[in-house]
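Q: What does the predicted 3D structure of Oxidoreductase alpha (Molybdopterin) subunit look like?
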Amino acid sequence: MAGKAPRENIDESQLSVGPVKKTAVGIPGVVHALEVSFNQMGVVRSAQALLQINQKDGFDCPGCAWPEEEKRHKAEFCENGAKAVAEEATKLRVPPSFFAENSVSELRGWDDYRLGQQGRLTDPMFLAEGSDHYVPVSWDRALGILADELLALKDPNEAIFYTSGRTSNEAAFLYQLLVRGLGTNNLPDCSNMCHESSGSALTETIGIGKGSVSLDDIHHAELILIAGQNPGTNHPRMLSALERAKKNGAVIVAINPLPEAGLMRFENPQTVRGMVGGGTALADDFLQIKLGGDQALFQGLGKFLLEEQRRPGSAHAGRVFDTAFIESHTTGLGEYLAQLGAVTWEEIVIATGLTEAQIRSTGEKLLASKATVVCWAMGLTQHKHSVSTLRDVVNVLLLQGNIGKPGAGVCPVRGHSNVQGDRTMGIFERMPAAFHDALDREFSFASPRPHGFDTVAAISAMRDGKAGVFLGMGGNFVRATPDSSVTEAALNKLSLTAQISTKLNKSHLITGRQALILPTLGRTERDTQAGGDQRVTVEDSMSAVHASRGRLAPASSNLLSEVAIVARLAKLLFETDDGGTRPGAPVADWDALAGDYSLIRSHIAAVVPGFADFEAKIDQPGGFVLPHGPRDSRSFSTASGLAHFTANVLEYPKVPAGRLLLQTLRSHDQYNTTIYGKDDRYRGIKNGRRVVFVNQTDMDSLGIAEGAMVDLVSEWRDGVDRRAPDFRVVAYSTPVGCAAAYYPETNVLVPLDSTADISGTPTSKSVVIRLEPVA
């Protein structure tokens, strides 16, 4: 039987702290995955859903974007993937009667976990101006309200269209067409807050903002550096690939401020050794780096390689660099080497918190490797100097020719299951001219060319009264964004907020003067349209595109697919009463597109490079891989046609005395803003989330005892104190001067205007805070 939704918020008075785990997954992971699944879905539905995850004829996991192996297990999912499916396929429901019984004001007092655990939304709902209760409305009325508000705007740039990374390629392509048809490029998305720094750095240096490696490259790498990433919680299926790499002889170095169980030892639940044989040790070395010190580390590694290249009498002298590759495929080496010569080992040691010997030891591993992969996630992308950091990652790889050869390359590990595909489909406020040109030819209109708002700029526009309507397709904008109080006040200024959603969350409760909830089908559910049962497609972190087909009965007969919602809205916006197209609007048969998604794919094939014969390619089990110049042929779509070495001034956070540098992070019982439970098994936390992890040395110097209650107060140049109250201090192995706490509870501490240079990503991994004891 499925369980019941929690009746109260998380009671943190029962929080307890136990031992930190040193191994990931194993029997506890299996038990917890099944416990959550059975509680949410029941036994029969759990079996129906879990056996379809990531299968070639099933649905793509709505969790992370880690790719699938060619040969699939019967149970091709991880613990957190099972939780993601259970959240969506739950038997619990949020019908209209729920909103009649619970006012918006009351629901605002519920925590994220309690809201999410109520179940699936079933009917479109409308919150009228001045009302405190959502009421049911028909789809025609709901979409009519939204269309009327959009058409009433004085300027289409007053509309903001947000997208989550779970949206399918088909829905994303139609969504961006609708937005550009309306006349704006205001397409902020979750990438703006997570991996925008990766895209910025990679586009500049190698000509494409995507990773260059395949799963086979991971399997056959000789050295894998994993920086600012916790795969045991955030991408657990990556552990299987790392285990295979270890069996093939790879050396793995973990670079992270916190020791993470998933980088230490993996007990693979699909092998006998994993379940009863002690598992596999993964990291050969652990570099416990200070927050924001990664650029200094990679400059140190580059400096070491340069010294070995030039050191007289060294066995490596003159042979460290891949000279043939550098001369044929790169530019800018001289300026980069000059920068390495200028940076000192003393400053590198200060910035990283590591010893020079530790960095040189990692450099020796680079010397010994003929094929190196660097993986990273948000630990590298959410600092002011993130783009410079990632340029320096690329620099080190270019020195040894580790781009475009087997077992080597860049591996930014993306989050949501189709966040990379959404960007490929045009969900970006700054798409290149070639995309616009192709879109215009295909739909016989002139798409707008001025850049639109990214996420931070969108919040600023709402705050400053320059926006009137917000539409979110997926995600939980209120809880995913920085500077929570500013974001909430900004949304309150709008005339209308509308959310295309599967589950209840805070974004339905922090609204404009009017609000709409537009409930949609989930990835797990059967999508039946006029043309029959439909399939959608997604793109994973390694540029592989494949089909996904839901099999479960929909949670409600009154749900629409994301494609259908977008198509019906576009028809209201762009069609005339006699069935024609309004002047200047894209020309499309919206009813036909909603009824047969293969027609959308034919448009995608005509607009997006690499999608020729799209339909035929996804008929092949496992789909196909998009072209990638650096990986496929060492060709680089930069202005020079070459990969770029870059000279980057060394930066790292400087923290005043008596203050700490905070990183926000996930617990093991959450995925992004979705809270699955109250525990963080790997870090020893049970029954609570309002904890701050602090080094014992810092606790002693600040005079704060283990278990003390404190407010976290962030300090920034605007002089505003941003406060997250009532956190329990937990002694933990963090670098001295560094602390960690879970988001979204700590997003309130991240200043809206504190962003990464160039990419605009919020600096959620380097927030200066003070701890104030609670009286």
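A (community wiki): The structure tokens above were generated from the sequence. The mean pLDDT is 93. Residues 294-310 form the longest helix (17 residues).
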